[in-house]
Amino acid sequence: MKIKSKNIFLILLCLIFITPAFAIETINEGAILGLKDCIDIAMKNNPNVQISKNNVKLIESRVGQAKSDFFPSLSASGGYTGNSALNNTIVNSNYDYYYSAGVSLRQLIYNFGKSNALIKMQKFNKISSEFDLEYTLLKTAYEVKNAYYGVLAARAKVDIAESNLEINKRQYMQIKAFFEEGIKSRIDFVNAEVNLSNSEIELISAQTDYENTLVKLNNAMYVAYAPSYSIKNTETFNLDDDWADVKFLNIGDYKKLEDEINSSDTEPLNYTSTPTLSSKVEKNDILEDYVFKPLELSFEEALDTAKEKRPDLKSYLATKDAMAESLKYAKKEYLPSISASVGYTWRESDAPTTSSMNYGATLDFSSVNIINTKYKINEAKTQLDIAIENINLIEKNIFFEVQDAYINLVQLEKQIPLYKKRVNQALENFELADGRYGTGLSDFIELQDARSKYLNSQQEYVQTIYNYNIAKAKLEAAIGEI
């Protein structure tokens, strides 16, 4: 039994030292995560969050230490003492010895508020550290939102680039057929080849940007070696698909356009009939069902919410209260402490055994360096002034942050419907240009100009929606909401 108990003890001891301070939250292969899921993962994995939590525990310990002044202190002692007298030749036969033991209890009665000031100071420091933790969580949530919306925007831009590539493929095939029949000039055919190559490059660039956003999202969640997973749409960022796959694309294995164009699977075009739009892929309408609710919050309401909820402001307010208590404590260092004590001692020797009980009260004036204490008070006053100015500074910063985020959000709310309208107008213009080119009423330059405008309008529309979501996330962070 002793051996087993010893082994169990060793195992528990190893577990204590081996177990990490917190468990890393991982992502399962093929998981479909929402924005809240990603934020929760980041909050569990972010080392800064764990540091802030440990800071709260650290201050809790200091509160306990400050409260310990009101608890009695116990001391005990025991010993053996002996002595003998020696001369040059003879050892003195007299030998004195005794055993002794004692125990005493000391209790602080009153120290003119010094302990209370110290306890309050540490309590306010604890409150400040708790709000620092909340602020860390707030920043973590914003970073995840930024990265999350970045993935959705990049995924939409990949879809746009794929649509543009498909348009250019079909146009190339159409113009090639026209050129071989002598209907269109060689310069149109060469320009179509150039556009096809450019669209391939643009797709690779969009895919690269998409992969970079994936890295940022994984970094925001502090997840290394993440498996393939998907993220859901949000109410304010509605992709055509229900979710975007979060996985790295193998650009190196991209199929050559020349092989794809010349493959037998390609649908032939009837260039002798009245031409229609070269491809319907561009009507994919990346964000066709996109809707958003305008902000139902006035600037004054947003500012009031920020003053009420911002954890960093609350942290500074608590710090100011802590510095006020620190100043009280410094001013009371001149004052004495009143304490009571009781003790019992026992002694045994050749003489009869003795014991005694003692008790009393003391007024303690600790050694005070007047000059040192004076400068401690000056330091405490300066720290209080700094805390007050920090509050003044954070209040102004909050005003400007809320104002900037609010103005950007309102402006983008006005712009989104206009950008959507421009996409529809650019599509209609592209359809007309395509028809005119097919009937010989316009040249290839006009057609490509219309295609470029349609492509740009789609990209700008997606970018505006991304900017809107980021502005919304900034406003949420500015008013202290996760």
Give a quick precis of the structure.
The protein has 482 residues and is of the alpha+beta class.
SSE arrangement:
Blueprint lengths: L1 H17 L13 E2 L1 H11 L1 H21 L5 E14 L4 E20 L3 H67 L5 H35 L8 E4 L10 E4 L10 H6 L36 H11 L1 H21 L5 E13 L4 E11 L5 H69 L5 H35 L4
Parallel strand pairs: 1-4
Antiparallel strand pairs: 2-3, 3-6, 4-5, 6-7
Mean pLDDT: 81
Q: What is the terminal-to-terminal distance?
A: 54 Å
The structure class reads: alpha+beta
Shape: elongated
Biggest sheet strand order reads 2-3-6-7
**Quaternary state, please?**
single chain
Q: Total strand count, please?
A: 7
Strand percentage, roughly? 5-15%
Tell me the helix content.
55-70%
Whole-angstrom Rg: 39 Å
N-to-C series of helices and strands = HEHHEEHHEEHHHEEHH
Low-pLDDT residue intervals, each spanning 5 or more residues = 1-22, 248-258, 264-284
Can you summarize the main beta sheet? 4 strands, antiparallel
- Tally the helices: 10
Describe this structure in words.
The longest helix is centred in the last third of the chain and has 69 residues, at 370-438. The chain is of the alpha+beta class and 482 residues long. It is elongated and about 135 Å long. Residues 1-22, 248-258 and 264-284 have low confidence and may be disordered. It has a four-stranded antiparallel beta sheet with strand order 2-3-6-7, with no helix packed on it. It has helices at residues 2-18, 35-45, 47-67, 114-180, 186-220, 257-262, 299-309, 311-331, 370-438, 444-478, and strands at residues 32-33, 73-86, 91-110, 229-232, 243-246, 337-349, 354-364.
